[in-house]
Amino acid sequence: MPQDESATRIQIRNRALILDAALDAFSAEGFTGATLDGIAGAAGLSKPNLLYYFKSKEAIYRALLDHLLETWLDPLRAIDPEGEPLEEMLGYVRRKLALARDFPRESRLFAGEILRGAPVMGDALSGQLRALVDEHSAVIRGWMEAGRLAPSDPHHLIFSVWALTQHYADFETQVQAVLGARRDPWAEAERHLETHFRRVLTA
Questions:
Q1: Rounded to whole angstroms, how far apart are CA atoms 101 and 75?
Q2: Burial class of residue 173 in the structure, from the number of CB atoms within 10 Å of its CB (0-12 exposed, 13-18 middle, 19+ buried)
Q3: Pick from 111, 121, 86: which is nearest to 162 by CA?
Q4: pLDDT of residue 143
Q5: For residue 36, what are the contacts with CB-CB under 8 A and spacing of at least 6?
Q6: Spatial distance between the Cα atoms of 113 and 115, rounded to a whole number of angstroms
Q7: 175, 123: one domain
Q8: Which CATH number belongs to the domain containing residue 15 in this structure?
Q9: CA distance 64 to 80
Q10: What is the CATH number of the domain that holds 190?
Q11: Distance in angstroms (rounded) separating the CA atoms of residues 154 and 152
Q12: Structure confidence at residue 4 (pLDDT)
C-alpha cells in the first residue's frame, strides 16, 4: 500500500511538471513551435516517460485549455445580477486584470489558440462561452435600459474589458519596454482602467 500511495504522489507530481513545462512552451513558442522533446526536458523527464502520462503534444495542449476555460470564465460568472451595476462591472474589470496579471502564460496560451482559429476550443467558444456572455449581456442591457448604466452594446462592452485587460499579459514585453523597468504597469493599469470604465459606464 505505501508503494501505491508513493506512486500516486509521483504521478501527480510528474503530471504537474509536464503541464507547467508545456504551459511555458506553448505560451512562448505557440503550438507549432513547442516540441515534446523540449517539454520533457524542461519537466526533467524523458520523452517516453512524458508519453506515459500524455499520449501526444495535442493531449497536453488540450488538457491545459480544458482547465483554462473554466478559469477564464470565472470573473464573468461572478457578476451578481442583484448587485449595484457600476460596482459589479468595475469588479469584473478588476478580476479580469488580476487574472491577466497572475496568469500571463495562460492568457498568452488562450490568445495563441484564438489566433490559430480555435481548433481545440471552437465548440466551447460558440457554446459555453457564448451562452455565458449572452446571459450576462442581457443583465447588463437590463441595467442600461433601467438607466443604471450608460447605454452601449453589452457584448462589445465585454469585448472591451477583455481587450483592455488581457493586453497587459499578451503584450507584456511591449508594455514594459514603453514604460520602463521602474514603473509598475499593473498598478498603473488598475488605476487607469478604473477611471476609464467608471466614466464609460456612469449613467
A1: 14
A2: exposed
A3: 111
A4: 98
A5: 47, 50, 51, 56, 57
A6: 5
A7: yes
A8: 1.10.10.60
A9: 28
A10: 1.10.357.10
A11: 6
A12: 52
Question: How many CA atoms lie less than 13 Å away from 2 in the CB half-sphere?
Answer: 0
Please check the confidence at residue 181 and state whether its pLDDT lies above 90. Answer: no
Model confidence at 1, pLDDT cuts 50, 70, 90, reads: very low
Distances (CA, A) of 64 to 13, 68, 102, 169: 16, 6, 16, 18
Give residue 135's domain range. Answer: 63-201
**pLDDT tens-digit map of 94-132:** 999 999 999 999 999 999 999 999 999 999 999 999 999
Average the pLDDT over 161-184 and give the result.
94
Q: What is the pTM of this model?
A: 0.88
Same domain, 25 and 118: no
Same domain, 51 and 67: no
* End-to-end Cα, the chain, rounded Å: 64
Residue 81: name the closest of 150, 142, 17 by CA: 142
